[in-house]
Design a protein that fits this description.
With about 500 residues, this protein is of the alpha+beta class. It is built from 19 helices and 22 strands. The protein is globular and about 60 Å long.
Length: about 500
């Protein structure tokens, strides 16, 4: 009771301050409350990015917008952002100069016959993000996703491509087949309408009862029973006991600024090797991509081989949000495979996600670059696409922050990624010979293939608080996402 009263008091006290900062007559919580320079978002699915924009316009901060964006993604991009998955977010709040991480990656340890269903991490992860950093009411942030599921949405190109790429897996599950296929047996296509009534019911309970409903009570029992009906293992006790962890990011200097990234991730080791230890800066201009590949061979990590070829087989997505007060959130989400296991938990509209090892969860690639002295953030990005995502993030960050490339050009550059175990370097189709020549000279095997990772990024050359109008929002041309700059 006291916590609710305190939050309401803070919100009420903040309204006059916001009114003096470019708002119109619409109240807090209503789209149009703020009409100028209120940040923006980048995501792999357009409808979800627009939900984030509306949340910012309604007076929400970056955490609010990230939570609303996630629940929208759960309906519009279940290939990588379903309720059953997990992830990790890096957060920065300029007002109090606070950096933090929220880790809610899907893990499990049970053994025996059948398969382990991971406790769902995304919902409690978003609840932790909201409780610690948000300001708008929780129901308001869940509701857009619930509406998209209940009343239907037009399938985006991003989801249509994911359905087509995984059609055979989805076809084998009767519930997935009923949702994602036309009456003639062909997969739904871009522009087709998708209604998910069972998922909407689950989201409705989460909106009304809170995130805890998925971990104890009737909904939790239904979730655990559905896992057993598929032959999987997920005990009610495991659901009750699962909680996200709040911690600190891995930090190191990048010039005058600080790079913050998720702990226990191969991206952290690679970024530190490249930027803190100088491997990227010391490489010649035409050998930057090769420097990333060589650093990846040294620091280790998972192989990008199978994930390096289209279609992407990782079941991951990433997004970033920034607000007018200097708040930033960047998140990496995973279903441990496209559409999780490809099997839907009966009566929930949710895909079962198999528990993953620490090696699989090692792939989270997110970064926020800020200056704690000025409170400005200069770069925020989240990469997806499996093991190659760390190299993709490094390529974009280095090009923008150290080489001075425009964000759009950095996102379009060809990439290389390494498999430390086989001493193989994967190159995107169209990579020039000069980029891979230094690697051939070291006796490494070069394999040319499909896209290597997707990066969605925000770059503010002069800082997002100092000069928000110069910020650039970009999505990877290898995907079909959307960038919204709510300040323009």
């Amino acid at each position: 009771m006291w916590g609710r009263f305190r939050r309401q008091t803070i919100i009420a006290a903040t309204i006059p301050l916001l009114a003096a900062c470019g708002t119109d007559s619409k109240p807090l919580g209503v789209v149009g409350h703020i009409t100028q320079s209120f940040g923006g978002a980048v995501a792999d699915e357009p409808a979800a990015a627009l939900v984030a924009r509306d949340t910012l316009s309604a007076g929400g901060n970056a955490a609010d917008a990230a939570v609303a964006l996630y629940f929208a993604l759960s309906a519009t991009y279940p290939a990588a952002a379903g309720i059953g998955g997990g992830g990790v977010c890096v957060v920065y709040r300029a007002a109090v100069n606070e950096n933090a991480t929220i880790d809610f990656r899907a893990r499990g340890t049970a053994a025996g016959a059948g398969f382990d269903v991971a406790p769902p991490g995304n919902v409690r992860g978003m609840a932790a993000l909201h409780a610690r950093f948000g300001r708008l009411p929780w129901p308001q942030l869940v509701q857009p996703g619930e509406r998209l599921a209940r009343f239907g949405n037009r399938i985006s190109r991003a989801l249509a491509r994911a359905i087509a790429a995984n059609a055979e897996r989805l076809r084998r599950d009767e519930r997935a087949r009923a949702l994602f296929f036309r009456p003639d047996g062909t997969p739904l296509r871009e522009g087709d309408r998708l209604e998910q009534v069972e998922l909407a019911t689950v989201l409705g309970q989460l909106r009304f009862k809170g995130a805890g409903a998925l971990h104890s009570g009737s909904l939790a029992r239904r979730y655990a029973d559905a896992a057993r009906a598929l032959g999987g293992r997920l005990s009610p006790q495991a659901l009750r006991d699962w909680t996200p962890s709040l911690g600190k990011p891995v930090q190191f200097s990048l010039g005058d600024h600080t790079l913050n990234t998720a702990p226990s991730a191969s991206a952290a080791r690679l970024l530190q090797s490249l930027f803190a230890e100088g491997a990227y800066r010391n490489a010649p201009g035409d050998a930057k991509a090769a420097a990333i590949a060589m650093a990846a061979l040294s620091v280790g990590g998972n192989a990008p081989g199978a994930d390096g070829a289209a279609p992407d087989r990782s079941g991951t997505t990433g997004f970033a949000v920034t607000d007018r007060a200097g708040g930033v959130v960047a998140c990496s989400l995973s279903m441990n495979g496209p559409f999780g296991t490809g099997r839907m938990l009966p009566g929930t509209g949710v895909f079962a996600v198999a528990a993953a090892s620490d090696a699989v969860n090692d792939g989270a690639s997110v970064a926020i670059v800020n200056n704690e002295n000025t409170g400005n953030t200069f770069f925020a990005a989240a990469a997806s696409g499996g093991p190659a995502s760390a190299a993709a993030l490094a390529r974009v960050a280095g090009s923008v922050l150290l080489d001075g490339s425009p964000l759009a050009a950095a996102l379009a550059q060809r990439r290389l990624a390494s498999d430390p175990r086989s001493r193989t370097v994967y190159a995107e189709a169209g990579s020039v010979e000069s980029a891979v020549a230094p690697l051939r000279g070291r006796g490494l095997r070069i394999v040319t293939g499909g896209p290597l990772g997707r990066v969605n990024a925000i770059h503010c050359p002069r800082g997002n608080v100092r000069d928000q109008e110069t910020c650039r929002y970009g999505v990877d041309p290898r995907g079909f996402g959307h960038a919204v700059n709510a300040g323009q």
